[in-house]
Amino acid sequence: MALQIHQLAYFVAVARTRHFTRAAELSGVSQPSLSKQVRVLENTLGARLLDRERGAVTLTAAGEALLPLAQRILIDVEAAQRAVAEVSDMRRGLLRLGGTPSLCAGLLAGALARFHAEYPGIDLQVREGGSRDLVAALHRGELDLALMIDSPQGDDPDLHLTPILRESLLVASPADAPAPTTQARMPVADLRGRPLVMFREGYDLRERTRAACLAAGFEPTLAIEGGEMDAVLQFVEAGIGLAVVPSMVLRTRPTLRGTPLEHPHLERTVALAYRREASLPASAVAFQTVLAVHLTTWGADELGDDLRLL
């Protein structure tokens, strides 16, 4: 008996959720039907893939070996289906794009408006998240492209990253309150003892801020932590604390002031990423071209000392 794609999909769903009922809900089938198909898969392979004891589901050694292969097969099948479905003139198709919150608001919106005007038949799916979240989604084959932050820790061998922008990080404070410093720039050391609003884990900004503080010899003082971008900016507006944020997000926030940092100057590199082994759909290739054109139209209002094209 040959392996069936839907059986592999059910197995992967159980492996991810470690729960048959939740896996069935995600797969859109009944739990008995899903369980039956997983058993058929096990019989076909001649090995038990899952241990089911006292309500807990764990992978056997055979299951651990099969999981990455099954995930790869499912990704390749979806890519093949999408490649066949897309037509050469791009009248229909799908683009799955990820972006950090700051990039979704400051860069992606304009690029997507241009793309949609040129290719109105392409369905757009956008996922917003921190760079670490986007990297994980790319590895799982859930995104075609992601606008994210190039990690200073080194390249991910499984991802291809094309740097497109370099952006300064600024200290955000309420515009109607005294500035956090009387100088044009604020040394990182001056953040010592200042209450900070900190992003949740998964944001590169969280790690960059904490690393800069530790390098300056102190642990950051947190007024509140765990926020997404909009929440962090609102907390700063409310006067709860300062936050280190990308310069791009402050351009549409007249209620906030941005103060550049020094010693060290903090900046980040924005990159467009995709999996090296992935065969990019035509829609993703087209978006890369549209994004490049969109960036060339940026003028002095968009660019400056805190934002530079690469």
Properties at a glance:
26% strand; D-Maltodextrin-Binding Protein, domain 2; 310 residues; Arc Repressor Mutant, subunit A; two-stranded antiparallel ribbon; single chain; alpha/beta; nine-stranded mixed beta sheet
The termini sit apart by: 54 Å
Structural class designation: alpha/beta
CATH class of the largest domain: Alpha Beta
Q: Give the overall shape, derived from the CA principal axes.
A: globular
Number of domains: 3
Q: What proportion of the residues is helical, as a percent range?
A: 40-55%
CATH fold name of the largest domain: D-Maltodextrin-Binding Protein, domain 2
Largest sheet: 9 strands, mixed
Give the beta-strand count. Answer: 13
Q: How many whole angstroms does the radius of gyration measure?
A: 23 Å
Helical stretch count?
A: 9
Detailed description of the structure:
- The chain is α/β, with parallel strands linked by helices and 310 residues long.
- The protein has 3 domains: 5-77, Arc Repressor Mutant, subunit A (Orthogonal Bundle), CATH 1.10.10.10; 93-165 and 269-304, D-Maltodextrin-Binding Protein, domain 2; 166-268, Periplasmic binding protein-like II (D-Maltodextrin-Binding Protein, domain 2).
- 40% of the residues lie in helices and 26% in strands.
- It is built from 9 helices and 13 strands.
- The chain has helices spanning 5-17, 20-27, 31-45, 61-85, 101-118, 131-139, 204-215, 229-237, 282-296, and strands at 50-53, 56-59, 93-99, 122-128, 145-149, 159-174, 186-187, 195-199, 221-227, 243-246, 256-262, 267-275, 307-309.
- Strands 3, 4, 5, 6, 7, 10, 11, 12 and 13 form a 9-stranded mixed β-sheet that branches.
- Helix 5 (101-118) links the parallel strand 3 and strand 4 (122-128).
